Model the fold of this input.
Amino acid sequence: MSNPAEHYDAIVIGSGFGGLYALHHLRDQLGLNVRAFDGAGGVGGTWWYNRYPGARVDAPSSPFYAYTFSQEMVDEWEWTETQSGQPTILKYLEHFAERFDLLKDIQFETWVVDARYDEAAQHWLIETDSGQTLSAQFLVCAVGALFVTNKPDYPGIDDFAGDCYHTGRWPHEEVSFSGKRVGVIGTGSSGIQAIPEIAKEAEHVTVFQRTPQYSLPARNRPLSKEDLARYREEWDDLRTSMRRRGGWPFSTSRLRASEASPEERRARYEKLWDEGGIHLSINSYVGVLSDAELNDEVSEFVRDKIRETVTDADTAAKLLPDYYFGTKRLILDNGYFETYNRDNVALVDLRSEPIEAFTAEGLRTKNNEHEIDVLVLATGFDAVSGSMLNLNPKGRGGVSLKEKWDDRFDNYLGATIAGFPNLFMIHGPGAPGVFFTMPLGGELTASWIGGCIQHMRDAKLGSVEASEEAEGIWDAEINGIANRTLYPQTKSWYMGANIPGKPRQFLGHLRGSHYFDRLTEVAEAGYEGFTFEPASGEVR
Ligand code: N01
Done:
């Protein structure tokens, strides 16, 4: 790498919720000289890429899936639905970038293709695909927990001659399904949101399902002016409540299932089902995600709903999930199960009828040929670790992240990695990520990173690095939490189980509020678990 012409205090990679806030915080609140890069053509991260039909936030209410730090932003942005669609969220992020004058410091359509730590200079050297070289003392990786797409490697898939779209890389121009026979592979959050919309337009849709899913009615509705006004008025308290209650300002149930009769429990599940959203999960009874017997009861309740909704009994049977409720990402849908009552929708259960091969005209399963014009891959992501490995920074001694994370995604606090000084991650492995509100999680993490940088500036320190011992303790802590639940018993992207050959490790922190308390405690204990080096020269 040639000598960098430009030096910054910090380089931020990514301009989604986390990266944009990191740029704002480090530049405008700490006064650092910051440059940001994004390979996309605009801000938005996940919301820039995932523009498939039906893409919509699955948060309980849009005002809480937003930045929380600025009362002015809360006051001026008019959310109109409880669960906003992708175009609205993208507009919101564009508005944020303009309002805080961030665009001038973000270089779009630019991929960081190399990042190496220079131990002597105590800074990172960055190379972009446009041939620029830059340096920065700190590298903030806001590269997205759900960015690297997972494309199935079925024999002949590249021979398919029709159009093929991945939900995570949806084209920016209009995609028309009118008069088309569409095949959709994948029934996670993306597939379940897209299928009802595609079915409204296409001549025929065949859904290829590997694992049936628990999906709850989203019950998206207009957000009343009164609710919005109340949120604005109570914003400070709501924000505190979000921070304390796992990302959302709602209380979770303290009711004990053992103190209610089966009839009372059933009535409660019905009420929560009618309310929609994630209420069945958080507001039924204590322990739904850790008590197998209680979970079985809620699972069966949802299966009954599927049986009631889907008129064809064979199709309904194929749609019944058989793992613990909530241990794969719970999905909020807008008429997903009802879609199977349409004449133009068919379901193929890949567990009994696997895909054998693709042809130019479609695909062949064990028992059938399926001719299709368009293939939609809603097959998810190499989640959380994938985007960091895609960047593959090289730390001390030139050791790459791919080498370090060969068999385990060791890190400290989901935000730092031993051997990679002055590098920070937002939503890294072991951070709460999707188990907390992503925008607030990004804000809190970026603020913690800013605090660490400020601490170093005040003390004239050149580098900060997590210790391997701290990584071990952290690993035990997050897995200890996960192992007290039913999550590890299910094959999911949370466990890395959706990607062949990926190490199996729980990729999130299940107690988001506790996690952010831990970040504070670590800082207050003088950044326990980190080692600092004095600045080797003038900190540039
Ligand atoms: O991806 P997924 P996603 N052959 O991994 C199947 C967030 N999100 O893009 O379950 C056949 O959940 C796979 O099957 P299985 C949210 O956090 C949020 O839908 O692994 N099928 C599964 O059905 C979510 O969890 C929002 O057996 C294959 C599907 O593809 C995360 O993103 C919206 C296959 C992938 O589901 C990822 O969701 C959308 C193969 N070879 C997403 N490989 C909102 O907030 C995979 N599958 C709005």
